[in-house]
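A student in our group prepared the protein record below, which I am reviewing. Thanks in advance; the entry in question is below.
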Amino acid sequence: MLKEVIATRYIAPLREGGSLPGLVEADDLGTYVMKFTGAGQGRKTLVAEVICAELARRLGLRVPGLVTIGLDAVLGLGEPEQQVQDLLRSSGGTNLGMDFLSGALGFDPLAFEVSGEEAGRIVWFDALVNNVDRSWRNPNLLMSQGDLWLIDHGATMIWHHNWPGADASATRSYDASDHALARFRPDVAGAAADLAPRVTEELLAEVTAQVPDAWLVGEPGFDTPDDLRRAYARPLLARAAAVHERVTGIEEGT
């Protein structure tokens, strides 16, 4: 399971995110970007963040470290801004935190170079999880000390909003024409040859086990959190084998 910490101080809202994440300090003296269960997108966004980030990490992609953050709702009582106060008060309990990359810069595809190999690995991964939020308009990529980091995976695995159609999602294509890395001639086929065999039932069980039970209980149609974990894994396992053949809108590198 993810490391557990307790929020001790709310520092500031981060207005770049649509869900109004916040910068917080925790009892381990770490600084984290915190995403809240009380935000408009709800706990499914946090589930997607954990599964995608932990899967990406195991596939060798760079993602900030994750923790669960316990929040006492009274922490919001002293906040002067009503929107922030309401968010904190509605998010008591277990929330999600990711390591704050101090000094990181937002990725600009016109200012930074990315190899076709690295671009291919990221495009392949985004196709696997059906990430619709890595466009040149909003890359959700950071540059830190010369390395490219992936952030914000809440808009992935959209099949979890309609479980009856989830298994059919494995055959859906992925339009990468607006992808932030499309211009770098991503070697998607090369990435698939390396990464697809690694996406096994065992790996996905390990990844989905990182999601706290509190974010999984009560989902209609599922008796236990483990039933829901297996439902998350099935489309990913089925999709991994051939999703590279259904990536459209880019000119691949060689």
Summary: The first strand starts at residue 3 and ends at 13. The chain has two domains: 3-99, 105-248. The mean pLDDT is 94. Residues 45 and 150 are 16 Å apart (CA to CA).
